[in-house]
Amino acid sequence: MNPKKIMILCGSPRPKGNTHTLADWAAEGAKSAGTEVEKVDLTRLRYASHGCTSCYGCQKLKEYRCVLKDEASELLARIPGFDALVIATPVYFLGPSAQIKVLLDRGYSLFKFNLETGAVSTALKGTAIAVIASAGADVSQGLKAVEDTYRALASFTGGSFSSLLVPQAPHETGGLSNNSAMREKAVAFGRKLASSL
Ligand SMILES: Cc1cc2nc3c(=O)[nH]c(=O)nc-3n(C[C@H](O)[C@H](O)[C@H](O)COP(=O)(O)O)c2cc1C
Q1: Domains present along the chain, CATH in parentheses
Q2: 115 Cβ neighbours under 8 A, 6+ residues apart
């Protein structure tokens, strides 16, 4: 049997910051459970546009694809090939970072919305959704909003939802890296996600 696959989207500009640290630990746990993991640093993607252009071109296609021609479209088209999608983000201004939003707004292309009947179909059917998010403040200052947003995504995909929320995270780069309790928690999170697929 082919191994299950997890894609982790990392939306922090700090390569050694909390988001990447937590994502790497979760990836380690998932790999230890026999899952393939691909981690994507969204700050390295080349975009043809600052965001979705609201052209609705994706809704006119048979396939689930964004019509813009750039690396974001290529990445989005590959996501349905994964069993789980992990959204790893710092909380910025009470929500996910722009790096996450600029990609996932175009995740609209992975859905077909029938605006007359209200019917929705998606290439993400059955995809498990997980969130890894850290913040400087407590859960009410953005972490809960991030969690709620992507829990709603999971209700569209019909897949499971899980989250690892880290409030009061240290602000300095690398501040989490020596936190062995947090490491253990994040590794276990990744392992549990992988085992659930
Ligand atoms: C531009 C910016 C906006 C932020 N906004 C919030 C916020 O609204 N709420 C919060 O609790 N923390 C906020 N923070 C703190 C970060 O979420 C926190 O430091 C996070 O762990 C950083 O992750 P990173 O190391 O991966 O970049 C903000 C930080 C920055 C740089």
Answers
A1: 5-195 (3.40.50.360)
A2: none
Using 50, 70 and 90 to split pLDDT, how confident is the model at 24?
very high
Q: Best mutation site among 21, 42, 92, 140 for ligand 1, i.e. most ligand atoms within 8 A of its Cβ? A: 92
Residue 183 CA to ligand 1 centre (angstroms):
19
Where does ligand 1 bind, in terms of residues with CB under 6 Å? 12, 14, 17-19, 90-94, 134-137, 141-142, 169, 171
Q: In this predicted model, what pLDDT tens digit does every residue of 129-150 receive, in sequence order?
A: 999 999 999 999 999 999 999 9
CB 164 within 8 A of CB 185: yes
The predicted pLDDT at position 117 comes to 94
Sign of the alpha-carbon torsion through 45, 51, 55, 59? positive
- pTM greater than the 0.90 cutoff: yes
| Ligand 1 centroid – CA 91 distance (Å) | 5
